Backbone:
């Protein structure tokens, strides 16, 4: 696979980076990323993922645009209120870069259909806002041997973690949060509030990590760093990181599984 003159010009600022280069840009063009959730995280993340030239994108969201979304969900404008997010997101991507392949799903993710949505992907980026969906996506990723980036944000804090529970010795997202959150009972930004720019910070950091994961072993950008969770604090501001160990008792990726 090679890049046309137009693509070389479009991605010139990537290609001159030794950590990406031409080989890295060609690799990104061949990758398939599934983005789950097109809200405060998925919306700005998609703009940078498309801008990075990731060749195939599957966009998953069953929600419709609400006026309250516009404070942080950068894909949408007032004319989109009431319309499906996945359809609008696809329209944005095809207008931004017609050479990218885009598929959408406007079905709500459940344990029953998550496998069909992630199978064959190179990476899943989950930016959803409830544990039931996150765990369903994580379980499907382990079963289908697909790495997962999980991103979450609320108020002035966010987190981004990379998980590969299908690999020996590596934790999955369930190792991180446990089994107690398989219900949709977590707090929401409607209840707690959220600084719009905080969602953008988490989203762009997640997009950066996605490029890193997709280029692991291809370029010198860095390793995927599985099991590493980064906590972003917008009040300090600052960031700290820690590593999640694989839980031998995890019902998804542990020895019991």
Residues:
């Amino acid at each position: 696979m090679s890049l046309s003159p137009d693509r070389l010009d479009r991605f010139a600022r990537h290609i001159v980076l030794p950590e990406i280069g031409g080989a890295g840009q060609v690799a990104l063009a061949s990758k398939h990323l599934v983005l789950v959730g097109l809200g405060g995280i998925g919306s700005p993340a998609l703009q940078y993922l498309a801008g990075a030239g990731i060749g195939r994108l599957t966009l998953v969201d069953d929600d419709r645009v609400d006026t309250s979304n516009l404070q942080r969900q950068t894909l949408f404008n007032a004319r989109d209120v009431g319309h499906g997010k996945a359809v609008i997101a696809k329209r944005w991507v095809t207008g931004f870069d017609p050479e990218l392949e885009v598929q959408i799903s406007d079905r709500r993710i459940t344990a029953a259909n998550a496998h069909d949505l992630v199978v064959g992907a190179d990476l899943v980026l989950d930016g959803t806002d409830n544990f039931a969906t996150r765990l369903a996506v994580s379980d499907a990723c382990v079963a289908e041997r697909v790495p997962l980036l999980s991103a979450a944000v609320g108020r002035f804090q966010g987190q981004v973690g990379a998980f590969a529970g299908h690999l020996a010795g590596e934790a999955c997202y369930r190792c991180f949060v446990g089994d107690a959150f398989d219900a949709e009972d977590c707090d929401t930004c409607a209840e707690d509030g959220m600084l719009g720019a905080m969602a953008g910070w988490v989203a762009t950091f997640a997009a950066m990590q996605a490029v890193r994961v997709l280029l692991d072993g291809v370029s010198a950008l860095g390793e995927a760093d599985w099991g590493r969770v980064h906590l972003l604090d917008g009040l300090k501001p600052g960031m700290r990181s820690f590593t999640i160990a694989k839980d031998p008792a995890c019902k998804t990726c542990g020895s019991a599984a």
Summary: The mean pLDDT is 94.
